[in-house]
Amino acid sequence: MSAFAPRVFSGVQPTGNLHLGNYLGAIRKFVALQESQDCIYCVVDLHSITAQLVHEDLKGQIRSITAAFLAAGIDPKRHIVFNQSRVSGHAELAWIFNCVARIGWMNRMTQFKEKAGKDRENASLGLLAYPSLMAADILLYRATHVPVGDDQKQHLELTRDIAIKFNNDFSGRIAAAGLGTEIAMGDETVNGYFPITEPMIEGPATRVMSLKDGSKKMSKSDPSDLSRINLTDDADQIARKIRKAKTDPDALPSETAGLAGRAEADNLVGIYAALAETRKADVLTEFGGRQFSEFKPALAELAVEKLAPINAEMRRLIDDPGHIDAVLKDGGERAGAIAERTMRDVKEIVGFLQ
Ligand code: TYM
């Protein structure tokens, strides 16, 4: 059989405020990809209960992420936007993948170690199995490409390992059921049911760092709001946070090599490059030799110019929850139809009676 049809899948958790890292590392790429690809974008609510079970307003959070997707420019008619818990196939396939994946694979995940902290015995079982659910999200739609920030790289490697092991363990059944598709792996071609997904992690903002500490990732869970620019921040807040961002006393270098060992400078130049859709080298051609007192206002102006329209549209959408709910319901139905076909095949391959 021929190769897999290209399909993009990605997800965002409905926990905390979306920030500039989520936007530049993921959501903006989602928007760009929809011009040329068939895309499925998911608000991963099942994932959001792994670290914290009870949320004050999970429904509001789900709507807010959906609003950000739409405000950024994702077209839910041409593509699919939905929340994960609507499609039961995610949890079903994750269970099968829990039996494919090994405990050792999960124990090696750096995000699990970070999130579980010292009290590992007390972390939820869901937090440990999280990457198996993530693999199910992607492979339920047999997605071939996954745009994400750098922090998801290890999870996507694990998704590939799960697909490879499933394809190998069930190779005879897959062939017997006529459900195999050709997969190019290096010089070899193998037959499998699940594609070996390609991560898409590129550009100047795959890892946007905290504005207060260039060694830490910009994160929803950082207790300091000054560490991140939220998509809901207004122009004054954005300008203030950039003004207060940590920097060093030197002028900007003229070449990217000069950013080595200057994490905060590197981060701000990367953010500028990503917002301006250019490269760090081009930013330094323009600003090399200038002080942060000149660069920061230019960065603030650019950030406000790019983020203000999204912010305004998000607010408008959040005021119309009926519209958001209708988008998610329609997306859930269309995602569900694809998922149902996959689950029928998977149950046949595993050998369940149906
Ligand atoms: P989440 O919700 O933490 O983040 C959503 C997306 O934003 C990216 N991101 C960043 N990119 C650059 N710099 C940063 N500081 C930064 N912080 C976050 C993340 O890499 C991500 O792309 N496990 C995922 C959600 C998920 C998923 C999936 C993703 C569940 N199933 C299937 C892809 C495919 C997560 O927690 O992302």
UniProtKB/TrEMBL annotation:
Pfam families: tRNA-synt_1b. One of its GO terms (molecular function) is ATP binding. It comes from Jiella avicenniae. Homodimer. L-tryptophan binds at residue 137. It is found in: Cytoplasm. Keywords: Aminoacyl-tRNA synthetase, ATP-binding, Cytoplasm, Ligase, Nucleotide-binding, Protein biosynthesis. GO terms for biological process: tryptophanyl-tRNA aminoacylation. A motif ('HIGH' region) lies at residues 14-22. Belongs to the class-I aminoacyl-tRNA synthetase family. ATP binds at residues 13-15, 21-22, 149-151, 208, 217-221. A motif ('KMSKS' region) lies at residues 217-221. It catalyses: tRNA(Trp) + L-tryptophan + ATP = L-tryptophyl-tRNA(Trp) + AMP + diphosphate + H(+). It is an enzyme of class 6 (ligase). This is Tryptophan--tRNA ligase. NCBIfam families: trpS (TIGR00233). InterPro entries: aa-tRNA-synth_I_CS (IPR001412), aa-tRNA-synth_Ic (IPR002305), Rossmann-like_a/b/a_fold (IPR014729), Trp-tRNA-ligase (IPR002306), Trp-tRNA-ligase_bac-type (IPR024109), Trp-tRNA_synthetase (IPR050203). One of its GO terms (cellular component) is cytosol. Its EC number is 6.1.1.2. Catalyzes the attachment of tryptophan to tRNA(Trp).
